[in-house]
Design goal:
This protein is mainly α. The protein is 72% helix and 3% strand. Keywords: Membrane, Transmembrane, Transmembrane helix.
């Protein structure tokens, strides 16, 4: 562009010199030829620049579509080796490393539904750049030429004003088109960098993307939002905290579910830490943790014992024990009722279960072992019945409250004459 400007200045100086010589010598015979020769020279320079731009654009289109020159002078589309594609596919979830430099060729294994193959600006950016350059160059040249002739005998002030009134706006339009084309091409280049930074994954850390392309995090977030609005990433989303770029709905839902689980876990930890400051809540947590430990031991023993009969009894024991501790966790006031249950019944029951497991693992099942196993199996039925009665007793207060509520309700209905007996008396 600077070379063209220097050429235009040189042509303008020649025309001004010719006009000055003609006025001094009062000989205008050569003036027309000088102007025509200078304009033709300028047009040749413009055409040369346009041809250069056109060739570079043509080469760029070929490289973007995967075309490569062959020794015979023909162009043939290249087909990637399938084994290389498979090796690349295996690396889909590898971490992003290195810097993401300019990526003139956009090659990705991501689905077209996730990354468009024809991003906006791929064609229009080239057209704006080419035609904007041509318009700006030609009409800027004409403006310089006729501006230098303005007010001379060759071009009156009125004619000069009229001519510049046409050429200057056209040159301005060309400049706007050129700027627009350059802007579209820069956005397309950033789009390619983002695709390269994704590294064929469906998610990426915004901070890592920003570092890889040398931009700020806020700039990348705004830029990605604009590209999402243009369907360059049709199904993409940004995480609520703006930390991650997610290419599809499924990945976004998985991320949201993960964040929700982490939040719930954090809240549970904070609640537990807060409860540990309260002696009663701390006692409840310790009791529930101990109960869950017993339940886990029952399950492990059940998995280790192959017998179906004892397995059914242990399944029943695990279920009722779990219900007891779940209820107490919701109703901490019932914890005192479990003292004897936790201090004696559960430890004794676990001792019997471990003994049965030890007997069952013996390679030789003698009379004593068989008899002891039968006794433990019978005892497990007794224990299960007792635990179920204990669980039922936890609802005694609630049952009494329900009974009291029913009695009060029946009394109110009778007082209002709304019971069945009252209707019978009316008849």
């Amino acid at each position: 562009m600077n070379q063209n400007r220097d050429q235009f200045d040189h042509i303008s100086e020649e025309i001004q010199k010719a006009v000055r010589n003609a006025r001094e010598s009062m000989n205008f015979d050569q003036l027309n030829q000088t102007v025509r020769r200078s304009v033709n020279e300028a047009m040749r320079e413009v055409r040369k620049s346009a041809d250069t731009v056109r060739r570079s654009v043509k080469n760029e289109f070929r490289s973007e579509e995967g075309w490569q020159p062959f020794p015979d002078g023909k162009a043939q589309k290249t087909k990637p080796d399938e084994r290389e594609q498979e090796a690349f596919r295996r690396q889909q979830f590898r971490p992003m490393n290195g810097q993401c430099n300019a990526a003139p060729e956009m090659q990705t294994l991501l689905s077209p539904s996730l990354v468009t193959r024809r991003p906006p600006g791929k064609v229009s950016g080239v057209l704006f750049t080419v035609f904007g350059s041509i318009m700006f160059g030609i009409f800027s040249l004409f403006s310089l030429i006729f501006g230098s002739l303005w007010g001379t005998s060759v071009l009156t002030q009125v004619e000069g004003a009229a001519t510049l009134g046409v050429f200057l706006p056209l040159a301005l339009i060309g400049a706007v088109m050129l700027c627009r084309g350059l802007s579209l091409r820069k956005r397309l280049n950033r789009f390619r960098k983002y695709v390269t930074a994704l590294d064929d994954r469906k998610f990426a850390d915004i901070k890592q993307i920003a570092e890889s392309i040398g931009k700020s995090r806020n700039y990348v977030v705004k830029d990605l939002k604009r590209m999402m609005a243009l369907n360059m990433f049709p199904d993409a989303r940004l995480s609520a905290d703006g930390q991650y770029f997610l290419l599809d709905q499924e990945t976004y839902q998985q991320y949201e579910a993960l964040m929700l689980r982490q939040k719930e876990q954090q809240q549970a930890v904070e609640k537990q830490q807060e409860d540990m400051k309260d002696p009663e809540r701390r006692e409840l947590h310790e009791a529930v943790a101990e109960g869950k430990s017993y339940i886990r031991q029952i399950r492990e023993a059940n998995d280790a014992i192959p017998g179906e009969l004892i397995s059914r009894k242990l399944d029943r024991l695990e279920a009722i024990t779990g219900k007891i501790f779940t209820y107490v966790e919701r109703k901490p006031e019932q914890l005192p009722e479990l003292r004897r249950f936790m201090e004696y019944y559960l430890p004794t029951t676990m001792k019997l279960v471990r003994t049965y497991q030890e007997f069952d693992a013996q390679p030789v099942q003698g009379e004593n072992i068989t008899k002891a196993k039968v006794e433990i199996e019978k005892t497990m039925d007794t224990i299960n019945d007792a635990f179920e009665k204990l669980f039922d007793s936890l609802f005694a207060d609630i049952a009494m409250d329900v009974s009291a509520d029913i009695s009060v309700l029946q009394a109110l209905l009778a007082q209002e004459g709304l019971t069945k007996d009252d209707f019978a008396e009316v008849k």
